[in-house]
Amino acid sequence: VLITGAGGSIGSELALIAAAHNPESLILIERSENALFEIARLLKARAPGVRVRALLHDVVEATSTRAYLEALRPHVVLHAAAHKHVPIMEDHPAHAVRNNLFGTKSIADAALVAGVERFVMISTDKAVTPRSVMGATKRFAERYVRSLNTRSGSDAGRFRMVRFGNVLGSACSVAPIWARQVAEGGPVTVTHPEMTRYFMTIPEAASLVIQAASLDAPECGGADIFVLDMGRPVRIVDLAERFVRLQGFEPRFPDPRADEHDITPSVLPTMDVVFTGARPGEKLHEELAHDEESLRETDAPGVLALAPGEPEPLDALDRMVQELREVQWTLEKDEALRVVRRHAPGVAPEHASDENTDTSQTNGAAAGLHAA
Fold first, then answer.
1. What is the number of structural domains in the chain?
2. Helices marked H in the chain — which ranges?
3. Overall pTM > 0.70
4. Is residue 247 part of a domain?
5. Residues 331-350: pLDDT tens digits?
6. Residues tagged active-site
7. Maximum Cα–Cα distance across the chain
8. The domain containing residue 216 runs over which residues?
9. Which among 263, 301, 257 has a CA at the least distance from the CA of 275?
10. Residue 249 within a domain
């Protein structure tokens, strides 16, 4: 089993789950030296009998990525490496193109050449009707990975994707950010009073990846994209209220937009909850599937499959990839944005958000809402 982004929140959980099943070998790819050290150390302590190969490597480097996979010949590749934060990618579109599309293309192409039996890419609900650069580049990557089933003649979904909602407990997710804000005396920040998100835990996210990799074609009807049945989306402000109360405070909403949250007097100390405003690329509500994709149950409880539509013409996809290739290293932000928007027209112009909201109170605390 080979895992990219192995030092991240999801990658490290996948590594621990894979190690528990005693694989022939476990190959970790991570470009952060510290993150690679930590996951390798953890695996040595928890799974001393597993043969672990830890590689300090960036999958964007296509030539060496292919060389590694041809030499190591993994049976399964779980691709977790990606840029995930919406506001940062709005300011660095070329980085998003390079890592999310061409990093994925590099490892997926190498997997194809190396004869990998199952490739699973971690995607995001932000790839559905994307409004952000991050979501758009993940959508581009989905389209490319899906095309490899056509290119390889695989009707069994050799190349698969999973779409995550927001992952609670992952690096820079809302819980640790809110905890830090509470420890500092507040306020606790929420982007918009009506913003909703689908949520899943790290174990749920990792389990979805493992199940998507292990489902046989008849069990999923030939689908190649999978999502977790996460129930109804949750309003972020409701989650913030519950979190504040769990910390021993009564939430207080000084913002006039929060009238409906007026509360009865309490003996608990209060903690302000303020709205910072939706930021560029943010949507108030996420979706799990495109209009042309239909959700259906699989044999795995809680795992839903998206029935694929008609295959995308490969010549059109190849033209898109070539145009994006030309801007993956550019330092001109506007140039990269222009090409991204050409292939994802829903991406908002710079500094435009889904809804006009007050952004005067921004202290970065809502960053966790943007991680896949």
1. 1
2. 9-20, 33-46, 62-72, 86-91, 93-96, 104-113, 133-151, 174-183, 202-214, 217-220, 236-246, 314-325, 333-343
3. yes
4. no
5. 999 999 999 999 999 997 75
6. 126
7. 66
8. 2-166+200-231+286-348
9. 257
10. no
